[in-house]
Design brief:
3% strand, 21 helices, transmembrane helix, membrane, mainly alpha, two-stranded antiparallel sheet, 423 residues, globular, Hydroxylamine Oxidoreductase, Chain A, domain 2, transmembrane
């Protein structure tokens, strides 16, 4: 009797184990992150519960563009039941963007207005950041903006007129629209104006259809745009102690930690988002990448932002998770001396070039003589590099790519000006 009972108990136990294994495998192949690795079409939580239109989206794209579905099944949207048309369904004001795709009305490229249905706070923070309208303005000037938008996004000068006289960055005119489309606009398009009146593209950082927070937190994602001769934050980060630690210990980072819960255990060294966006300690997360910055380092003459001193306190609260206040104060004091030096050098170069214009030795059109390129790069390249290097601890960019290059350029500008005066 006991033997029979134990046999039944053993069979029930084995059956339970097998059942659990089968359930785990079903999860793995259906909605788990490994589901995309199998060879036959996968089913997400969405496809199991979706409307006929959404089911058709999944069925068709599984055959026509499976890469999209692979990413989608791997992401949290799919796992949490967010359906295709939750993002791609047209909203009021998106009539110009709406197309009929297999008898279904949709917007091919959702805008922040679509995402605001679920992420309204993040969209608002993004909209007032330098990644939105302020990013788009330099490549198009005022032509894409209404008067109300220029005022709303602080694109008017103290005189009430559009910044830079409403013109795009001078280099955009030098290289032309075709070159700009695949260069300047490729990065500044993160803030491009959409046909529904919104500005920006969330997919610039949350790439693909998985919209991974882990991906957005990696420095390499920011490095898509923040690199090169005029804003080499990626290169500076890589040579800094922060970047070196990250590169050597990437496996220690919990890049997928839930928003608002980050500690130094998750991020033992900061990535770009740790300092500029993430919530850590008592600091709340934000999608406004300018919210923690004291200085505006990009213009010819670097200036302190309107809320700059308060912003610095917020940034230092993040630094204090790893550094002593004395260390922070010493670094920032030295960095601001470099910023002042770059401003001084830029003013010297501007003074020489402006004198040549005043006495009529420079033509009316800009960027048509060597000395104008030297003066432009004095701030747009060398000045910025030294400033970013100083703040982010990139010694090579402070000196050899920064102050040294400025000093060299000033010698060349002076010599060029003297030759022009002789002629």
């Amino acid at each position: 009797m006991h033997s029979k009972f134990y046999k039944i108990l053993l069979l029930v136990g084995l059956g339970s184990v097998v059942g659990v294994i089968l359930l785990l495998q079903m999860y793995r192949f259906a909605v788990g992150p490994q589901g995309v690795e199998i060879s036959f079409p996968t089913l997400s939580q969405v496809s199991l519960t979706s409307s006929p239109e959404n089911a058709q989206c999944i069925e068709c794209h599984q055959n026509e563009s499976p890469g999209i579905l692979d990413q989608y099944h791997d992401g949290k949207h799919s796992q949490r039941g967010v359906q295709c048309l939750d993002c791609h369904k047209p909203l009021e004001g998106q009539e110009k963007m709406t197309t009929v795709h297999y008898e279904v009305q949709m917007v091919a490229a959702p805008t922040p207005n679509n995402y605001a249905q679920c992420h309204d706070e993040a969209v608002h923070e993004f909209s007032i950041s330098a990644h939105a309208a302020k990013s788009w303005y330099p490549v198009v000037g005022a032509e894409d903006f209404t008067k109300e938008e220029l005022a709303k996004y602080h694109l008017l000068g103290e005189d009430g007129k559009p910044l830079n006289n409403g013109k795009p960055n001078v280099i955009r005119d030098v290289i032309g629209k075709d070159a700009s489309a695949l260069s300047c606009e490729a990065c500044h398009g993160i803030g491009k104006k959409n046909d529904d009146g919104s500005f920006g593209d969330c997919r610039a950082c949350h790439l693909g259809h998985d919209f991974s927070i882990e991906q957005a937190r990696q420095p390499e994602t920011c490095g898509q745009c923040h690199l090169g001769p005029d804003h080499p934050q990626m290169e500076i980060y890589n040579e800094s102690a922060h970047g070196t630690y990250y590169a050597a210990n990437k496996e220690k980072f919990n890049l997928g930690a839930p928003t608002g819960t980050l500690t130094t255990k998750d991020f033992p060294s900061p990535t770009c988002t740790t300092c500029h966006m993430s919530g850590i300690g008592d600091i709340e997360p934000t999608h406004n990448v300018s919210e923690r910055l004291k200085w505006n380092l990009a213009p010819p003459i670097a200036t302190i932002r309107a809320d700059g001193r308060q912003n610095r306190q917020t940034m230092e609260s993040i630094c204090l998770n790893c550094h002593a206040q004395g260390t922070i104060d010493e670094h920032m004091t030295q960095a601001e001396k470099i910023i002042d030096l770059t401003n001084e050098n830029v003013r010297k170069g501007q003074s020489i070039v402006n004198e040549l214009r005043t006495i009529g030795l420079l033509p009316g059109s800009t960027m048509s003589t060597p000395i104008e390129y030297l003066e432009f790069e004095l701030w747009h390249h060398e000045g910025r590099r030294a400033r970013f290097g100083a703040i982010m601890s990139g010694a090579d960019y402070v000196n050899w790519h920064g102050i040294y290059e400025q000093e060299k350029a000033l010698v060349e500008i002076k010599a060029e000006a003297e030759e022009m005066k002789k002629d």
